[in-house]
Write a structure and sequence with these properties.
The protein is of the alpha+beta class. It is 25% helix and 46% strand. The protein has an 8-stranded mixed beta sheet with strand order 2-3-4-1-5-8-7-6.
Length: 123
């Protein structure tokens, strides 16, 4: 059970405006970019930043989430977090990159946990 990567989430209205600046700032290209039609969102990452773009209405349910932890086993984390009494806000579900859940840590911080599927990793 490991956290493989931590993304700081940044909520924006348009990815095409922010990505060129961040690519130059970090000196790397956008690593992932995909649409999440079910939620009317588009996501992209540059370095350790995860940009989530959408209308104010589409972003509203997610704005309280401060970070995304990419983990090796969502099921193992769910079992562990349940044992220690962490509040699950959004139960595990399928998403475009694999599966995710959202939890509230004991200090009140809201974190998304996501496990990428092998097919996504290899793409």
């Amino acid at each position: 059970m490991k956290v493989l990567k931590t993304f700081t989430r940044i909520y924006v209205s348009d990815l095409d405006t922010v990505l060129p600046f961040c690519e130059e700032l970090y000196g790397v290209k956008t690593e992932l970019r995909f649409t999440y039609p079910e939620m009317s969102l588009e996501l992209a990452s540059v370095g350790d930043l995860l940009f989530i773009a959408g209308s104010p209405e589409a972003l509203k349910p997610f704005e309280g989430t401060k970070a995304t932890f990419v983990v090796d086993s969502l099921d193992e984390f769910l079992t562990h977090l349940n044992k220690i009494g962490v509040k699950v806000i959004r139960e595990p579900k399928q998403v475009p990159t694999g599966k995710n859940m959202t939890v509230q840590h004991p200090d009140g911080t809201i974190i998304e946990y996501v496990e990428h599927t092998q097919a996504y990793i290899e793409s």
